[in-house]
Amino acid sequence: MALEHGTYPTLAVVSFVSAIFPVVNAELAMVGLVVALPNPNLLPLVAVATAAQMAGKSTMYWLGRRGGEVATGRYARAVERWGHRFRGSSWGVGALVFISALSGLPPFYVISTLAGVFRTSFAAFLVVGSAGRFVHFTALGLFPAALKSIG
Description:
mainly alpha; 84% helix; elongated
């Protein structure tokens, strides 16, 4: 389908949808395209996947931010209590966002939403998350070539 409809638009759509609905797999799409294309240009593929993923993760951030505003009762108290911890150490939050964006553990879906709930800096979330996703998709793009060189 991607080769028929356009590699970059297809990767962008899959990556964006994957950011919001984790059952869709942007990683599989990236590896599949690198394998299927005769001479894949890795940098644009990684850039597209990263930008689309971060657009989707930004959506989750803002949904979390809005959800945190409407929390009531014990949920509001929990958001406030954990928010102090989450925001208390900006280096810790940045490291958590980066590690999650890089590895997917803890799930970047959850971390993106919590970053919004706890009102962390959107600019910092976007920059650090993009850096982690860029490295993540670069490693995935290089994976097929690494396997070929081994076997």
